[in-house]
Amino acid sequence: MESNDYCWYLVNAENQILGRLASKIANLLIGKHKINYLPNLITGDYVIVINASKIIVTGNKYKDKIYYKHTGYIGSLKKKLFKDIFIRNPKYVISHAVSGMLPRNSLKKNIIKKLKIYLDKNHKHISQKPKVFNL
Length: 135
What we know:
The chain is an alpha/beta fold. The protein has a domain at 8-56 and 89-132: CATH 3.90.1180.10. Helix content is 30%, strand content 19%. It contains 5 helices and 6 strands, in the order E-H-E-H-E-E-H-H-H-E-E. The strands form 2 sheets. The chain has a 4-stranded parallel beta sheet, covered by helices on one side. It has a two-stranded antiparallel ribbon with strand order 3-4. Helix 3 (82-88) crosses helix 4. The radius of gyration is 16 Å and the shape is globular.
């Protein structure tokens, strides 16, 4: 396979644990499952995540997990709870988890563009004929 032979995978996030789902998606995006994996090239595949609003988290993370954001100014550390972000934007929760599992280099922004997240089972990538990826 050449490095430009990409597959499209369809991942159903319904009743999946956030961290385990994110690690499987990150491996598909990076391309570690392929024979021609190279850490300095983008060899990963495209991933479509459906039912993003139906993921689960274990323990007390739903009400205790905190996302931090610093604007760069002194004393401007912003905190938001998981439940507030999840109610507002479940796509952010998944993309943030997957982004944290990608390598911290210049390829990261191009790899994360291959992740497509949808809140329900409807998506617009039917013409790519995605393969169902069972977790």
